[in-house]
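pls design
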C-alpha cells in the first residue's frame, strides 16, 4: 500500500475506520495504491467502493452505483440500534447529492500496477475471491467499525441491485483466524443438530477456507424482517438457550473434559510461554492474574461434575434476532463445542452490564453472581456452581483478550480492573 490511503494530498488516518480496510488487503504482496479518485497512471483498479456518508467520514464502503449503495445501506435496519438506523438512513438519502458534490473523489479505489496479472490478483485479493464464490454476488459492502482491539470490517456480499446475498468474516491474524475457523465448525455442528424448522436457527455456512494470508467464512444472510434484541431481552432469549441445549444435547462430566476448558487453558499456556508472540507490553499483570486463576481452577474446579453442552460464547442482544416465532443467533467466534450449561446466560449479564450499561468489571461480576443462581436453576444447572462459572467466565474472557493482544492488536478496553478481580477470584 503506497502509504496511507489518500484523498488528494490529505492522508487518512489508518488507525481509524479506514485503517480497517488494511485487514482485507494483501499488504506487502504486490504494490498497492489505495486512494479516492482516479487510479494513478500505469495502474488498474481491482476493487472500488463509494464512501458513505462522505470521504471524510467513511463509516460504510458501499457499491459505487447510487441505487445499489442506497439499498445496501438500509438493509437489515431492524437489527440495528436506533442511532445506527438513523445514520444509515441519512447516509442512504445523501448518496446522490454527495456523489454530485464529490464526483469521483467519493470513490475509493484499490489499484495495482497494470502489469500485475489477473491470476495474481485473484490469488491475493480476498474480497474478489469471496465474490467469485457466491452465485449472483457482484461486489462487497463493508461496515468499518470504531477502532478497538477486536474490530474487523463487516463484509456483505451484494448483487447488482445492492441486495445482500451473504455475510462474510475475514481474519488476517492468527488469533482472529482461530476464531473464524471455530465459528465455522460450530455453525456446522450446532446448525446440523438444530435443523432449519425449529424455534432457534443459526445461519448456514455457504463457504469457508483460506486465501493467501486470509481465513474466511461465508454464511447465508439473515432474513430481512429479523428484528434485533434489546439489553432487557434476556427473558425472551432464554428459550433459545434451552432449544440449543436440547437440540445439541447435554452430558454430566467433570469440567476438565469440556472443550471450553481445554481450549482456554491451551490458549493461555500458548500466550504465557511465548508460542503466539508472548505476553505483550502492558499485559503482564493481567497475564499473571490469569495464570494464578488458572492454577486455582486446575486444583479446585477441574474435577467438578457439571452439565456440559453447547456453548455459544457471545449470547448477547446484539447477536440475536427474531423473525416471527423463530429466534436467530449468530457470532459464535467465542463459542465452544462444549461448556457448562448456564454460562451463556451469565455471560449475557456480564457483557450487557459492561458494554451496554458502562459498568466496570467488579460491578459486572457482582451482577453475574446475583443473577446466577436463578438463571442456573432455570436452565437445569446447580445454583451452587455460580461462583465456579464466574471464575471460568473471567478466565476465558481474559485469555481471549491476551490472545488478541499477543496477535498485535492491543488489549481490549474495559479490563483495567480485571487483574484485581481475577486475583480475588483465585483465592
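designed seq:
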Amino acid at each position: 500500500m503506497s502509504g496511507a490511503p489518500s484523498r488528494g494530498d490529505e492522508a487518512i488516518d489508518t488507525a481509524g475506520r479506514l485503517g480497517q480496510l488494511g485487514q482485507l488487503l494483501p499488504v506487502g504482496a504486490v504494490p498497492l495504491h489505495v486512494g479516492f479518485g482516479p487510479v494513478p497512471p500505469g495502474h488498474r483498479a481491482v476493487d472500488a467502493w463509494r464512501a458513505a456518508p462522505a470521504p471524510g467520514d467513511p463509516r460504510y464502503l458501499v457499491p459505487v452505483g447510487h441505487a445499489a449503495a442506497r439499498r445496501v445501506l438500509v438493509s437489515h435496519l431492524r437489527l440495528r440500534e436506533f442511532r445506527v438506523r438513523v445514520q444509515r438512513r441519512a447516509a442512504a438519502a445523501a448518496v446522490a447529492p454527495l456523489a454530485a458534490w464529490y464526483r469521483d473523489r467519493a470513490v475509493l479505489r484499490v489499484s495495482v500496477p497494470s502489469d500485475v496479472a489477473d491470476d495474481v490478483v485473484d490469488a491475493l485479493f480476498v474480497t474478489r475471491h469471496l465474490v467469485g464464490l457466491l452465485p449472483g454476488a457482484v461486489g462487497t459492502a463493508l461496515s468499518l467499525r470504531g477502532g478497538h482491539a477486536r474490530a474487523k470490517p463487516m463484509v456483505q456480499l451484494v448483487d447488482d441491485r445492492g441486495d445482500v446475498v451473504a455475510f462474510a468474516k475475514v481474519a488476517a491474524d492468527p488469533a482472529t483466524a482461530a476464531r473464524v475457523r471455530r465459528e465455522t465448525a460450530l455453525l456446522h455442528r450446532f446448525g446440523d443438530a438444530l435443523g432449519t424448522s425449529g424455534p432457534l436457527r443459526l445461519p448456514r455456512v455457504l463457504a469457508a477456507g483460506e486465501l493467501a494470508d486470509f481465513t474466511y467464512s461465508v454464511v447465508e444472510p439473515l432474513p430481512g424482517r429479523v428484528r434485533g434484541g434489546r439489553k432487557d431481552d434476556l427473558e425472551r432469549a432464554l428459550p433459545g438457550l434451552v432449544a440449543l441445549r436440547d437440540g445439541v444435547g447435554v452430558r454430566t462430566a467433570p469440567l476438565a473434559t469440556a472443550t471450553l476448558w481445554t481450549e482456554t487453558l491451551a490458549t493461555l499456556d500458548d500466550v504465557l510461554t511465548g508460542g503466539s508472540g508472548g505476553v505483550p507490553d502492558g499485559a503482564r499483570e493481567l497475564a499473571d492474574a490469569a495464570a494464578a486463576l488458572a492454577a486455582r481452577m486446575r486444583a479446585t474446579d477441574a474435577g467438578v461434575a457439571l452439565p456440559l453442552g453447547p456453548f455459544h460464547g457471545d449470547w448477547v442482544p446484539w447477536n440475536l434476532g427474531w423473525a416471527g416465532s423463530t429466534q436467530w443467533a449468530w457470532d459464535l467466534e467465542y463459542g465452544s463445542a462444549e461448556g457448562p450449561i448456564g454460562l451463556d446466560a451469565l455471560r449475557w449479564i456480564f457483557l450487557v452490564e459492561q458494554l451496554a450499561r458502562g459498568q466496570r468489571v467488579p460491578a459486572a461480576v457482582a451482577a453475574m453472581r446475583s443473577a446466577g443462581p436463578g438463571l442456573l436453576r432455570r436452565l437445569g444447572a446447580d445454583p451452587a456452581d455460580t461462583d465456579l462459572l464466574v471464575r471460568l467466565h473471567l478466565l476465558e474472557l481474559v485469555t481471549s483478550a491476551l490472545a488478541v493482544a499477543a496477535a498485535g492488536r492491543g488489549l481490549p478496553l474495559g479490563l483495567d480492573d480485571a487483574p484485581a478481580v481475577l486475583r480475588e477470584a483465585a483465592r
